Amino acid sequence: MSTNSSTVGQLLWRGPVCISWKQDPEGALYHLANCFLLLGFMGGSGVYGCFYLFGFLGTGYLCCVLWGWLDACGLDIVLWNVLLAVACLLQLAHLVYRLRMNTLPEEFDLLYKTLCLPLQVPLQTYKEIVHCCQEQVLTLATDQTYAVEGETPINRLSLLLSGRVRVSQDGQFLHYVFPYQFMDSPEWESLRPSEEGVFQVTLTAETECSYISWPRKSLHLLLTKERYISRLFSALLGYDISEKLYTLNDKLFAKFGLRFDIRLPSLYHVLGPSTPDGGPESEKDDEEVCEPSLSPVQATPTSVQHVSPCSPPPAATNLPAPLSRARMSRPDSGILGEDSTSLVLEDFEEVSGSESFMDYRSDGEYMR
């Protein structure tokens, strides 16, 4: 043990005794190789840092090969540096392969940066979503229909990448679909995986459009398999549907000056196109308005009713019109100060005679 320790001490403190030192320095290749090695070991992390690292190291080892072959004339120097240079080249080839595999088409790369990257969606998860739509970008020509009301089955989910799509119902304009919005999110959410249905609206391309589309069955299988992707789509679809609802609500506010509650049912039927000749619907509304003014004794026997219950009162009395029946029962609520539970369908009787919010037929009317 003492003999080994003494030998190590001699190697550390005294060092090997050189018989003679070379008087001439090494050639330029030796110094160039060390410069490349120094630059290579200063590389950083990440993919591009690895490119920098292995690029300079490989170049330095190649210079060492040339130095060992031409100046040092040592076979062992040449072999070791050849092995190190080959290892660096293999690492570079592996990095190029990884970058090529991670590269997405331009449309999908822009979609990832716009929609998924702000939500910190992993790239590998995004690739699974893209793979489900077979990495195909579909197109729509101007005035080409994506879906026809009452005819097109709901068998896919599509996301608009570029262009603008007009949504209409019964020939009446509803709203637009802009890039990076789902084209049929309400239809997707309206059906269960085992149900079938058709579109209730018509979607028409107003400009040259491009979009991606997921088949319904394939996407349902992916959402069932991947819980994270299911939650991601749930959040995206919920946000998209809420944006469409708020678009319709803002449109109503711009037309009538009242902020309606978008959660109210049958809003379209209440504010829909009114019949010009006062059809059965208008007569039914008039009857409903006038019925509360009747007492039970007056409403039961038909022979006593000498005056029509819906006839207007005399002008001398100066009574207000009965269209504000819902508001008279709630005197404490204001027009704009009501909460979401206080608004009922009767609140819209005063605007039901106006134009419908479905009457927008052109871009100019919608922008106004």
From TrEMBL:
Residues 273-341 are annotated as: Disordered. Residues 25-251 form the POPDC1-3 domain. The chain crosses the membrane at residues 46-70, 77-97. Residues 295-308 have a biased composition (Polar residues). It comes from the Eukaryota. It is found in: Membrane. GO terms for biological process: heart development; regulation of membrane potential; skeletal muscle tissue development; striated muscle cell differentiation. One of its GO terms (molecular function) is cAMP binding. Its main location: membrane. One of its GO terms (cellular component) is sarcolemma. It is a multi-pass membrane protein. Keywords: Membrane, Transmembrane, Transmembrane helix. SUPFAM superfamilies: cAMP-binding domain-like. Belongs to the popeye family. This is Popeye domain cAMP effector 2. It comes from Ictidomys tridecemlineatus (Thirteen-lined ground squirrel). The gene is POPDC2.
